[in-house]
Write a structure and sequence with these properties.
Length: about 325
Amino acid sequence: MTVSFSHIRLFTAFVPALSTLFLLSVVAVKVPGLFLGERFFRGGCWLQVVLAAAYAFLLCWKMQDIRLRARWRRYSWLIFSFSFFGQLLLGIMCDSIFLLSGELHFPIPMMIIGGAVYRWEFGFMPLLLILTILLSGPAWCSHLCYFGALDNMVAGHLSLPPKPYKFFLPARYTILVLTVIVALVAKWSGLSYVAISGIVVLFGITGFFVMILSYKRHMMVHCSGYCPVAALVSLGKYISPFRFKINKEACTLCGACICRCRYGALSKAQIKTGKPGINCSYCGDCISACNHGALQYAFLNMNADHSQRIWLMIVITLQSCFLAIARV
């Protein structure tokens, strides 16, 4: 029996929907009070679970179309970010019911690393970060980071090949090291909570100003040159079995893909090597620009098409679950 493309597409969309439904159902039973919906009316958590599963189905259905992939990635990422920061603003300005614990915490990615080092404990967020890297490589930086969605929005559309600053990579690895050092110094010196809060707020505000460069250069400067979590993800992504590569036999070196990469991970020199730069987030925006099928996902010994579908199913499941429960 021949399986049509539409059947494969339908099956692929159902997998993240059912996975999201199962995972969030387990969370709803095991962790009562986590879902925002149940704080407003009885059974509200189950409505959230069903809506998240429906969202996963729609998103996976749309993103399987290569022509729509970049657009729907941008839409879904912004939905996730606006939902996260929207609930934060409602928690601050209206009612603490919108906050996860009823208390305010700093929603800055740097705190995933700095907070863990300062507390000297391996908490939930570092564990979640490592788990997502293991399951999906660097998808944290292209689908799952609430700050990254803003940087992506500010960067806008590329019309010419970006010219990344040469110090982008050294800068963010330096900031990663400094984040660890500052956290250790703050812990050992007994720095006051007010002083620590000031450092964190200053780091976050600086990050927003860095995004001005994203707007001017039409590439994600915050993610590519400032974020310490992105630096950690780019180094740790190789623990995942997923890869993103350039098929040198199919590639004609036309360079059409370069204008689609907001991370500065594609250049003529990198294309010739068959490997995107280390800051490649596997976002897949570049795939639609290639008319030769040279840009491919790789997973174990599977072909490029199957590898891409599996990666997409995992990432959409993660994002749908994050969307349902991610709050400060």
